[in-house]
Amino acid sequence: MPQLPDDLDAVAVRTWCSLALEALGRERAEIDAINVYPIADGDTGTNLYLTVESAAAAVEAVFAAHETGTTAPATADAVRAMAHGALIGARGNSGTILAQLLRGMAGVLADGGDAAHLRLALTRAAAAARQAVAHPVEGTVLTVATAAAEAAQGEEREVPAVVSAAYEGARAALARTPEQLAVLGRAGVVDAGGRGLVAVLGALVEAVTGQAPVRGPRTGSGKAAAPVDGGSVVGLPVGGVPVDGLSVGEGPLDCPEDADGGPAFEVIYLLEARDEQVDRLRTRLDALGDSLVVVGGDGLWHVHVHVDDAGAAVEAGVEAGRPYRIRITHFATESGHDVRVQAEPAQRAVVVVVPGDGLAGLCTEAGATTVIARPGEPPASGELVDAIRRAHAREVVLLPNDAALRHTAAAAAEQARTEGVRVALVPTRAAVQGIAALAVHEPDRGFDEDVVAMTAAAGATRYAELAVAEHRSWTMAGICQAGDILGLIDGDVAVIGADVPATARTVLDRMLAAGGELVTLVLGEDVPDAVADALEEYVREGHLAVDTVVYRGGHQRAPLLIGVE
Is 150 helix (H, G, I), strand (E, B) or coil? Predict the structure, then answer.
């Protein structure tokens, strides 16, 4: 029998995220089906899955950065990445609460992953989640999280015993939720958000013990059977009334039990703001609607609220700081009850991921639907699916513009295909390749012909970017020091320089040595126009037959992106 881990290290955190994603993937449909509080949108399982997907992707990015090293990342780096990924990718009530739970755990586990730290982490997580909710309600995921923390406190042994105790405490609490919340009791189901948390804790048990926990139904006092883990909820009777196909509302917050008279819109956004501004924002949003959850800290917050005036909720965010990734959902439309005549879908659309606001405007003008990938915040597959839906077309060409998004984009394309959309994924690896593909897009020609032309244009575009080295390290071009300017050609470090202009000239010389007709320069927001003017002149003088186009990329990770066609 393999030795059990003494503490929760970075590898265990990575395994936990992966197993939690698998578990929520298996149980997503059933969790959606028992989604009975507070809004009839049937998406708790999906929201939890997308939130964990973002957390797992962030952890994988930390490990990818250590691929050339001989040791795994520090536990602190892994848990902070997990929390940050969940925060920026949180969806719905349930996902927002889960993000706060993971953030609460990360704040403790960054200092140590032994049994004592884990017990404290679970306690801090449950408290942080309650503090984030404007009006906590018992019989929800908050109750389940508190029970898990309390059960863990009674276990003094090693990490596996602590997580197993937390899991069992959560399962028992979940089974009692129909007794605590009347709407659950009438429907004969447990809380959907709580069930998702049990799945996440079950994945933690498996990550540290190597064995999946025993799964099976646990019941409360007998007032209502309570399906847990793998238990089916279809056809479960309560008081002689079958509840086949239930899909009403979700998890943990403060809406009235009758959701029909509730707010019309769900508003979600990320917010860059100071703590004191967020305190005032909470007060204002609480007066506007309900189901208010604000989670985060250190200048970055995730805001979730149900309101009738969506514009006022966004304006409140603008007054507090800088809101972005704004998502507004009309509940009637989402639940299929909207009676308005929907516009006929377009025949074809392009969905493109861009690294900054500047390119988003450029691509929007060209007719594309855009998804902004901000520095350190790659979009999850759910965000790409949302963009495909917004494009509202029978055929969609998807341009991920990042090699790291290949699997995410493929998952989004597959999901959209199940919804009846014909999707072609063009595997663009950089924004300049996406620009080249979009330039040859012709919606009036055949779909396959259009995709071939866009793929060919992207493939004929070599790409490069300039980056600032964060620390001393080995590269394919030699040893770089912190602060050096790195020139990456087709994803590999080819040049190490002291400043942006000189490094860019060397990169251009190497790329144009193989030929080219057009150079594309995309400037970051801090790069002055004079740099672009100088580089354009440099190309014109050294390569007479080569044209240059310049775009402003806005707030993007790289100070300069370069494309050569």
Answer: helix
Cβ atoms of residues 497 and 477 within 8 Å: no
Contact in structure between 17 and 189 (CB atoms under 8 Å): no
Q: What is the pLDDT of residues 215-229, one digit of tens each?
A: 654 433 333 333 433
Between the alpha carbon of residue 554 and those of residues 404, 411, 525, 559, 564, the distances in Å are: 21, 28, 5, 10, 21
What are 363-410's pLDDT values in tens digits?
Answer: 888 889 998 887 777 888 878 888 898 888 999 999 999 988 888 888
Residues listed for the chain: 565
Per the listing, tokens 């909207």 go with 338
Say how far apart CA 424 and CA 24 lie, in whole Å. 27
Q: pTM value? A: 0.66
DSSP 191-240: -HHHHHHHHHHHHHHHHHHSSPPP------SSSS----TT---TT--BTT
By the 10 Å C-beta count (0-12 exposed, 13-18 middle, 19+ buried), 112 is classed as: middle
User: What is the DSSP-derived secondary structure letter of residue 70?
Assistant: S
Q: How far is it, in rounded angstroms, from Cα 349 to Cα 331?
A: 25
The angle that helices 192-209 and 159-180 make with each other, rounded to 10 degrees, is: 170
According to DSSP, residue 528 is labeled: -
